[in-house]
Amino acid sequence: TSMSGRVTAKSETNLRTGPTTVGTEVVYTLKKGEFVEITGEHNGWARINYNGQTVYAIFSYLITEEEYNAQE
């Protein structure tokens, strides 16, 4: 599913080179309050643009910018 907007981690979540935990590298650990662009979601994984690179994170570990701001 195609998506757009900004998301952050609920606490911390790994950004990976592919949409699986098996055989993929962790590119970066996203911390709560750090925002990245989400471009899509498929099978529980978010597709994210991080520093011009396409990376993946477990979708349920993320919240939207609006949800984050509502918590503050």
Overview of this protein structure:
Helices cover 10% and strands 51% of the residues. It is built from 1 helix and 7 strands. The chain has one helix at residues 65-71; strands at 6-9, 12-16, 26-31, 36-42, 45-50, 53-58, 62-64. The longest helix is centred in the C-terminal third of the chain and has 7 residues, at 65-71. The protein starts with 5 loop residues before the first strand and ends with a helix. The mean pLDDT is 97.
Primary descriptors:
mainly beta
Write the SSE topology.
Layout: E1 6-9, E2 12-16, E3 26-31, E4 36-42, E5 45-50, E6 53-58, E7 62-64, H1 65-71
Antiparallel strand pairs: 1-4, 1-7, 2-3, 4-5, 5-6
Give the strand content.
over 45%
N-to-C terminal Cα separation, in Å?
A: 29 Å
Structural class: mainly beta
Report on the biggest sheet: 5 strands, antiparallel
Query: Helical residue percent?
Result: under 10%
Tally of individual helices: 1
Quaternary:
single chain
Poorly predicted spans: none
The counted number of beta strands is 7
Short description:
The protein has 72 residues and is mainly beta.
